[in-house]
Amino acid sequence: MLHYQDSPKDGHSCSGCSSFRPPTAPDAETGTCKVLEGPISPHGWCMAYSPR
Ligand code: SF4
Description:
Blueprint: E1 20-21, E2 32-33
Antiparallel strand pairs: 1-2
The protein binds iron/sulfur cluster.
């Protein structure tokens, strides 16, 4: 619904989003998000993106 994609959009990605929660394990490649369920790539993006 928020058009999540697993690649950045216009230079923006989850790693710079205020809703992103980084991976907890050192070897994990995905984190989580406050507004979307499921594993979230730091390099992803969705319509709810908001800069930190
Ligand atoms: S709101 Fe969207 S852009 Fe921000 S962390 Fe979640 S999935 Fe990524």
